[in-house]
Amino acid sequence: MSRQKADRMKELTELLNKAGKAYYQDAEELMSDYTYDKLYDELKALEDELGITLAGSPTVNVGYEVLSELPKERHERPMLSLDKTKDVGDLKEFIGNQKAVMSWKLDGLTIVLTYRDGKLFKAVTRGNGEVGEVITNNAKVFKNIPLQISYRGELILRGEAVISYADFEKINAQIEDVDARYKNPRNLCSGSVRQLNNEITAKRNVRFYAFSLVQAEDVDFQNSRKYQMEWLKDQGFEVVEHHMVTAETVEEQVQKFSEKIGDNAFPSDGLVLVYDDIAYGMSLGRTSKFPRDSYAFKWADETRETKLLEIEWSPSRTGLINPVAIFEPVELEGTTVSRASVHNISIMEELALGVGDKIEVYKANMIIPQIAQNLTRSGVKDIPSVCPVCGEKTQIRKISNAKALYCMNPECQAKHVKAFSLFVSRDALNIEGLSEATLEKFIAKGFIREFSDIFHLERYSEEIRQMEGFGEKSYRNLTASIEKARVTTLPRVIYGLGITGIGLANAKVICKEFHHDVDAMIHADEETLNAIDGIGGVLAGAFVSYFKDENHIKILLNLLKELEIPEEIVDNTERILEGKKFVITGSVTHFANRGEVKELIESLGGKVTGSVTAKTDFLINNDVHSASSKNKKANELNIPIISEEEFIEMTQSGD
Questions:
Q1: CA geometry: angle at 118 spanning 117 and 119, to 5°?
Q2: Where along the chain do its domains lie?
């Protein structure tokens, strides 16, 4: 029996280290937090029972080796993990007759800051607890770190670098490759803090919250951790939210913290307790892994048993088809949940997940629904052989350590979200409420296959109303915006098709040349288009090539059936800017935006380009004396730089 238990220890050590490496170094998730914690506890119990601890066990090794090109440095004092519990009773026992400071356990990247002579001298990541990475230049561009403080001695403190949920969603939305998106705010923060180029870090809105003062000579802290936190506030640091507790008040304070989770801007995976009495805490010393003056409290996951109804396969623009578990609705942490991402086929196989299984679900960090365990484990089956969007063949691929399903059709609609996003953009059909994220969902569910389908979303009204992020009001707003978009202009439609190189200005020129005759346009040859002033051979070729595809013609004709395009009024405006080329830069005050300036220029016969060249006639910039690159180039080429007022005067005088 003991041999079997020793073998199980080896198996658990290998499994946990593999999962830990994937999570911390490769930003991949091989198992849920719930499963990891459960296996970790099983390993620790076996070690205690057998009196054996294997080399490499995650219960004694703190973190993982640093793997980056950043300079490395050994910490003066090892950064230990904290012993943890999910039982409030353990917290009461830990506090005893002492007072303790309770604070959030933020889920980001721990950083050690050193200040000398009042200035930030050094910033080092926790790394593996013994050796960290020097990220001083990156720390200097965190949003809230003071670069200079009033204290002039050597100050060493620790805190957590974090990225908010809102910034996480915003940054992830800007990453076109779904596979390259970050799994959670912690992974994004880790990648942002450890950049080799701190310009990237500066754009990520990283914030730092101090949670522990390590050293500050010649300061009387009145033997109080709470006083230290207040002192750090006085030095200009944002400190983690904290409250004083006793054994009698700790349970009440845990409850108060738990009620704030849903409204937290930043991710948290629990709470931390540290004795307020500094001398008492230090007198307790440490174990090989844990300090004895601190204790971590992890949220006891509220789990609910439910039935797995289906696996929904959701295609993305990279071809990755993500499995999503749909289960009978349950109440968790005050909200109703009925779906949870399973991430990939490897996790499905780990859970032996099959439709009809009894499963336990929970919310990771009390926020993100996940499957804790599968009670019946019927096994993975019915992985789709065809894509649910386009119907073409799928393929299982192993990327790094995980198996995932991919659509192999390059023309799959799910891979062309950008095309639909352009179609609904402001300069095209201008449909509000159809963000890329919403388009992805609609396309994945088969609501939208071509542009004309957008005008028939009422077919799926009930499903849309029940989708996450939608409701009656948002659905009504969307349908109103779609109906408004039915009345448009032909140039906007042509631009919205996404023909390579054809912008709104080009579309206007082409439509005008063909007197807004759609049939004449789609059957035009390259020679005719090339002869149009401002089009040229490349754009002519792209336009003709696009409409050689019969499917593209069908898509346009289907779309036109949904639209109302008023007859164009002949524009008799004098083309006083005929042949003039303008570049617009900086902000405008007399127009809503630079787009309006551009429209006026084009209506008067002029053209607008993006960069200053020898062919530019005027640069419009309200700051005519700025040292911008466009102003500099214009001055070098003796091109007049005019203000917005001068431009307006020019259009009125006809000069």
A1: 95
A2: 2-50, 72-297, 304-407, 413-485, 490-560, 581-653
- CATH, range 581-653: 3.40.50.10190
Residue 482 has which token pair? 């779609």
Question: Are 413-485 and 490-560 the same fold in CATH?
Answer: yes
The domain 72-297 having CATH identifier 3.30.470.30: the answer here is yes
Residue 367's beta-bridge partner residues? none
Asked if 105 is an active-site residue, the reply is yes
pLDDT for position 63? 44
Number of neighbours of residue 425 by Cβ within 10 angstroms: 15
490-560, which class in CATH? mainly alpha
DSSP letter for each residue of 572-610: ----TTTT-EEEE-S--SSSSSHHHHHHHHHHTT-EEES
327 close to 338: Cβ distance less than 8 angstroms: yes
CATH 3.30.160.150 applies to domain 2-50: no
CA distances from 346 to 32, 77, 396 (A): 12, 39, 11
Express each pLDDT in 283-341 by its tens digit: 988 877 788 889 888 876 678 899 999 998 887 766 788 899 999 988 876 678 888 88
The one catalytic residue among 99, 105, 140, 441: 105
Q: In residues, how long is the chain?
A: 655
For residues 556-569, one letter each, b for 16 or more C-beta atoms within 10 angstroms of the residue's C-beta and e for the rest, the string is beebeeebebeeee
Mean of per-residue pLDDT scores for the chain: 84
pLDDT at position 655: 47
Residue type, 69: E
334 phi, psi to nearest 5 deg: 90, 0
If one compares 180 and 274, the residue with the highest pLDDT of the two is: 274
| 534-561: average pLDDT | 88
pLDDT-based confidence at 55, cuts 50/70/90? low
Does the pLDDT of residue 348 top 80, yes or no? Answer: yes
Rounded to 5 degrees, what are φ and ψ at 423? -60, -35
Give CA angle at 544 (543, 549), nearest 5°: 105
Question: What's the CA gap between 224 and 219, in Å, rounded?
Answer: 12
Q: Which is it for strands 581-584 and 618-620: parallel, antiparallel or unpaired?
A: parallel
Contact predicate 157/212, CB 8 Å: yes
Q: Which residues pair with 386 in a beta bridge?
A: 393
Side chain identity, residue 568 = E
Q: Between β-strands 109-116 and 304-315, what pairing exists: parallel, antiparallel or unpaired? A: unpaired
What pairing do the DSSP bridges indicate for beta strands 641-642 and 618-620? parallel
Helix (H), strand (E) at residue 521: helix 518-522
pLDDT band at 649 (very low <50, low <70, confident <90, very high): confident
What is the CATH topology of the domain spanning 304-407? OB fold (Dihydrolipoamide Acetyltransferase, E2P) (2.40.50)
Note every long-range contact of 47-52, with CB atoms under 8 Å and residues 24 or more positions apart, other chains counting. Answer: 47/9, 49/5, 50/2, 50/5, 50/6, 50/9, 52/6, 52/9
Mean of the pLDDT values across residues 265-289?
87
Between β-strands 100-106 and 268-275, what pairing exists: parallel, antiparallel or unpaired? antiparallel
From first CA to last CA, the distance across the chain in angstroms is 98
Cβ pair 573, 611 in contact under 8 A? no
CATH class of 413-485: mainly alpha
Residues 6+ apart with CB under 8 A from 124: 73, 75, 111, 112, 114, 132, 133, 134, 135
**Residue 3 has what pLDDT?**
64
Distance CA 404, CA 397 (A): 6
Name residue 11's amino acid.
E
Compute the distance between CA of residue 311 and CA of residue 38 in angstroms, rounded to an integer. Answer: 25
Q: Return all residues near 369 (Cβ < 8 A) that are at least 6 apart.
A: 332, 337, 339, 340, 361, 362, 363
